[in-house]
Amino acid sequence: MFNDSVELTLSSGKGGAGCVGFRREKYVLQGGPNGGDGGRGGDVYFRVDNNTHTLAHFQGNKNLKAEKGKPGMGSNMAGRAGQKLVVVVPPGTQVVDVETGEILLDLLEDGKEVLFLEGGRGGLGNVHFKSSTNQKPMYAQPGEPETVRVVKLDLKLIADVGLVGFPNVGKSTLISTVSNARPEVANYEFTTLTPKLGQINIDYDSYIMADIPGIIGGASEGKGLGLKFLRHIERTKTLLFMIDLASYHELEYQYETLKKELVAFSPLLAERNYAIALTRADAMSPEEAVEKTNAFLNLVKLDAATKSRFGFSSDYPVYEQESFDVGFYDKALPAFIVPISSAIALNIKPLTYALYQMVVSERK
């Protein structure tokens, strides 16, 4: 079960109470106070674990508490400190204050452990309150109370490339073809109900691709599933618009709708570097695919490249920015536009290298 948002009540441990005790031994007359201190309450930590990919494990337990400190004892024995609580979350988790909406923590690095709530200090035993005028103190401190915080955990997946497109345009097929991800693939809309990540290996390096449910017109107003999961590509620096050549939706409508919904969701996300893949070129004749590709290039007022530097098929028109191969290009325009087909492996391998070039330029 995938879950990307959950509300938790977190409590640190209460400090243990100090002890009121006195030394009582057979040959020690009028032994003084010897009550020990209470133990410190347990702290609350967040730990990032790359082996965790969802927040679903919190569904059955949304009230998490660190252990209380143990009370002090006689003979100056201090109570044991409470065990800390470690809340394990996947990379990309944000900790948000429910009352104010403030982002308290943004947890990205695998293995990182961050202190979130400190446990209450243990109370002092009565041995600390003896004096020349008070040789028999009958008082010890209670432990400090626990700290309680209600937070919401929001998971935003960390990926290098985010796939954006209408339902059933081939996003899941592409990510299953080029990576180790195995999403459900079927010939109907909204087969992808949850985000998927896939790792694409390029020589001795790799990058992560994210597939999210399809976006439809009106997604920013709550229609479909895309708006709910757009958060998962907020962290990506590179977007791949996937536009279906064989869809009953016009190419212009698909392109303009996707841009509009991205702007409505997040103007910052809409400014990300992007490229365009014209999918399902195998669903029509090569001549028709060429005609539709040229029509789309005319629509966006871009000219086809005379020769592809990434090895895209010469049988189809493609667009590449002039300086794209060295990482310098106009980020207001698509880095490239290319027709693809996962079914017949058309331009798939060159596509992974072209996307890798975009990812590398963003990492610098």
Features:
364 residues; alpha/beta; Spo0b-associated Gtp-binding Protein, Chain: A; Rossmann fold; seven-stranded mixed sheet; five-stranded mixed sheet; rod-shaped
In short:
The chain is α/β, with parallel strands linked by helices and 364 residues long.
Describe this protein's structure.
There is one protein chain. This protein is α/β, with parallel strands linked by helices. It folds into 2 domains: 1-155, GTP1/OBG domain (Spo0b-associated Gtp-binding Protein, Chain: A), CATH 2.70.210.12; 161-363, Rossmann fold. 16% of the residues lie in helices and 23% in strands. It has helices at 171-178, 226-229, 251-265, 286-299, 348-363; strands spanning 5-11, 44-48, 63-65, 85-89, 93-97, 103-107, 113-117, 148-155, 161-165, 196-202, 205-211, 238-244, 273-279, 319-320, 336-339. The strands form 3 sheets. It has a 7-stranded mixed sheet, with helices on both faces. Strands 3-1-8-5-6 form a 5-stranded mixed sheet, with no helix packed on it. Strands 4-2-7 form a 3-stranded mixed sheet, with no helix packed on it. The chain starts with a strand and ends with a helix. Residues 183-193 and 218-226 have low confidence and may be disordered.
The CATH homologous superfamily of the largest domain corresponds to P-loop containing nucleotide triphosphate hydrolases
H/E element string? EEEEEEEEEHEEHEHEHEEH
Rounded radius of gyration (Å):
30 Å
Strand coverage percent? 15-25%
In helices, the fraction of residues equals 10-25%
The low-pLDDT segments are: 183-193, 218-226
Number of domains: 2
Q: What is the fold named in CATH at topology level of the largest domain?
A: Rossmann fold
Question: What distance separates the N and C termini?
Answer: 36 Å
Strand order of the largest sheet: 10-11-9-12-13-15-14
